[in-house]
Design a protein that fits this description.
Length: 761
């Protein structure tokens, strides 16, 4: 039929002066429109004209030539398609052209789910089946076989081995709020590593994530998303608008979040033990909290040519949160009494990020960034203990003003396609003034953090290795003391692509943990009738060494990986309690001799089996810690899995996290629990409606148990948020494009000031 139509249009258009070639490009997997595909019209190997498919998958190419022509259609994530047009043809409607799912990598086409290791990173091309079953980027990450990465659909967070990953979108440093504003269908490729690259190793990140979006041309896009629970005060939202005109792109983002919970409970059984004094305490309280956060982002990108990029980002994050505690205590020393605690934190922290990149050629590039931040907060804490005949009042009111300037320069040189060298320098200078209103104590705190690094990477056959090293020079000064730290950060990475089925990765990382300005602040404050809290200006640097090896296997729609790891921490930092006399105890951070963990996790994934898919992660770890006169051990098991089934416009999914225990010094705890059953309906390409049931059959909702085996302050504490139990949540999203949106890349610096100089209770 297509052949007949082609000859028909050739016949009726033979007398026309110009030829128009049109068609519609759809995915062979689910017949959805392929937006942004590149359509080239070629003659004898020379490109005549280029076009891109629009929102409906349509394209049009025009030429005056009557020679034999070739239409080539390409799109990342699909196999390319070539169509021959005979000499002398007129206007041609190619009708519907289906692209088969696949990925072209260095002239090798890999169909189905594609996952490869390249230059020390795992590269995943999401399948159309996974994208179809995911309305948001967060839900898509639940379905990807990225060992160590946890995607929490309730909190809308991504973590790597429990920490915050370094996030880039098209090479541009980004935040979790930026990912929350993405749609799954816009994501083409994901680069992932459990090892933090050298240039970000000084910034407290755990792992690396770079998301590549579909390439588009001029136009704009609007994305609206919101959710709310029917049975509790809970609301989140996300608004993103982007528009490109000529060399400029404008982006506006707004992400509000609000909670107002009343059924939040804490129960504690503890003792405070000294040689000549002991008190047993049983504490039961209701701890309601209320907060609202507003994340505003205004961004401008300017690309006058392919070698140059200038970017300016203004972020404003006003926030307010308050919590209250109404408790009753059974005290073996003072009898029974009650208390009321109230904490309020009101803050505003705008920042301006200026970024410039210039590519001298294909092998050399330079990046420069300046970030200025201002952080103003008002912290109020008040605790009143009612002993019947008298009251005791403990309070701390403080105003904090912090400003910082962050500078960075980075240079990358590629010797060839198999070896590269990157070097850079970072500096953070901050000035803080805290005023403790109860005592009029107003310390001035200064911080000067310098970090210089170098990384060399080399590919030899199927093996890639990299060597990274950096020097951190950190100066801290306040009214009472000065501290200087000079430390090295190093890592070795090795990956071997044994075959198309097997690969193996190994790495070693050395990372010192330099104390923060807050933990070093010496300002004692009484919190309860027995407890005084304070920073510790004598804290030592903790030293972490991590060894990991991970073999992986993939065959068609099945993937498996096993991570085995060993980590040791010298001078590990924990909170310790000491008796200081007269019935009072001091709690502050301190160094213990050693902490270690060993174990591993198994990750399994299978997808698109009659619409079904599953992603499962199972972990087992052994923890040990050692102090001056004590040792503790713990064996822990954890798991999380996602199951889904997609048919037509409907997707049903279930996510469950089986929390594991952890050991930190003599503190033992259990991670946050969670599960979510959801049903999603997509009536068209613009709308998505989802109904969810969270924390199913959990009467106590979210639970956070914790134990302490301290000889001075042993305790068991449970906290649970009953408001979260059996939540019914409705989510609605809407997206539309006018034209198509331009995406800028080529940025990899990311600096922000998330530190605090205020020592709070």
């Amino acid at each position: 039929m297509k052949l007949i139509l082609t000859f028909f249009f050739i016949f009726i258009g033979i007398f026309a002066n110009a030829m128009n070639i049109t068609g519609i490009v759809l995915s062979d997997n689910d017949s959805t429109e392929v937006v942004g595909a590149t359509c080239k019209l070629m003659s004898e190997g020379h490109i005549i004209t280029i076009s891109n498919t629009g929102n409906n998958g349509e394209f049009e190419l025009a030429t005056d030539l009557k020679t034999k022509l070739e239409v080539e259609i390409t799109m990342v994530g699909y196999n390319p398609t070539e169509i021959l047009i005979e000499e002398g043809s007129g206007n041609v409607d190619l009708g519907t052209i289906y692209l088969n799912e696949g990925v072209a990598l260095q002239e090798v086409v890999v169909t189905g789910q594609s996952m490869v290791n390249a230059n020390g990173r795992t590269i995943v091309y999401p399948t159309q089946a996974d994208i179809k079953a995911s309305s948001t980027a967060i839900s898509l990450f639940q379905k990807l076989p990225l060992a160590g990465l946890e995607s929490n659909p309730i909190n809308r967070t991504l973590t790597v081995d429990g920490g915050r990953p370094m996030i880039l979108i098209n090479g541009i440093p980004s935040t979790i709020e930026d990912i929350q504003g993405l749609q799954a269908k816009d994501i083409t490729k994901i680069e992932f590593s459990r090892v933090t690259p050298a240039r970000y190793a000084d910034q407290g990140y755990s792992g690396f994530l770079n998301i590549t979006l579909k390439e588009r041309t001029d136009g704009g896009t609007v994305y609206l998303w919101g959710r709310s629970a029917l049975n509790t005060a809970f609301m989140d939202g996300n608004f993103n608008f982007s528009y490109h005109q000529g060399p400029s792109q404008f982006t506006i983002g707004y992400s509000p979040s609000w909670r107002n919970y009343h059924d939040v409970f804490d129960n504690t059984w503890e003792s405070l033990i000294a040689p000549d004094f002991k008190v047993d305490l049983e504490d039961h309280d209701n701890n309601p909290f209320n907060y609202h956060y507003h994340n505003l982002r205004f961004k401008y990108d300017f690309t006058p040519n392919s070698k140059t990029l200038f970017s300016a980002t203004l972020r404003a994050m006003p926030n307010y949160n308050t919590s209250k505690s109404y408790g009753n205590v059974k005290d073996s020393e003072l009898g029974e009494y009650s208390y009321i605690n109230k904490t309020t934190n009101d803050g505003f922290n705008p920042s301006l990020d200026l970024f410039f990149r210039y590519d001298f050629n294909d092998n050399n590039s330079l990046e420069i960034e300046e970030v200025g931040t201002i952080n103003h907060s008002k912290y109020r804490y008040n605790s009143i203990y009612d002993f019947g005949n008298y009251d005791e009042d403990y309070s701390m009111d403080a105003n904090s003003n912090r400003s910082s300037l962050i500078s960075e320069i980075s240079y990358v040189h590629n010797f060839n396609d198999k070896s590269s060298l990157s070097v850079g320098y970072q500096n953070t200078y901050s000035y803080s003034k805290n005023k403790y209103l109860s005592s009029d104590y107003t310390p001035i705190l200064k911080e000067n953090n310098n970090y210089v690094y170098a990384k060399y990477g080399q590919t030899i056959g199927k093996v890639y290795f990299s060597l990274s090293t950096g020097a951190k020079l950190f100066w801290i000064e306040n009214d009472l003391n000065k501290r200087h730290f000079i430390r090295n950060l190093s890592s070795i990475y090795l990956s071997w692509n044994i075959s198309n089925l097997w690969s193996i990765v190994g790495n070693f990382t050395y990372n010192p943990g330099i104390p923060s300005l807050t933990s070093l602040t010496d300002y004692p404050q009484q919190k309860t009738p027995y407890l005084i809290v304070n920073g510790n200006p004598d804290l030592k640097v903790s030293e972490t060494m991590r060894y990991q090896i991970m073999p992986s296997f993939q065959y068609k729609k099945f993937y498996a990986s096993l991570l085995l790891g060993y980590r040791t921490v010298k001078n590990q930092v924990i909170d310790e309690t000491y008796y200081i006399g007269e019935g009072l105890f001091l709690q502050q951070s301190n160094n213990i001799k050693k902490g270690l963990s060993t174990g591993g996790d198994l990750n399994l994934k299978i997808s698109d089996v009659a619409g079904f898919g599953a992603n499962i992660s199972i972990g087992f770890y052994h923890y040990a810690s050692k102090g001056l006169n004590w040792r503790h051990h713990l064996n822990a098991f954890d798991a999380n899995f996602t199951l889904w089934w997609s048919k037509g416009p409907f997707t049903i999914s279930y996510w469950r996290k089986i929390p594991g225990k952890y050991l930190n010094g003599y503190y033992e705890g259990r991670d946050e629990n969670g599960d979510a059953l959801s049903i999603e309906y997509k009536p068209n390409k613009h709308w998505s409606i989802e109904a969810g049931w969270w924390y199913m059959f959990e009467k106590k909702g979210t639970k956070y148990p914790m134990w302490s085996y301290s000889e001075v302050n042993p305790f068991y504490r449970e906290r649970y948020i009953k408001n979260n139990g059996n939540m019914i949540v409705i989510s609605v999203s809407y997206n539309t494009d006018f034209g198509s949106i331009f995406r800028t890349g080529k940025r990899s610096l990311n600096n922000s000031d998330n530190s605090s100089s205020l020592f709070t209770m």
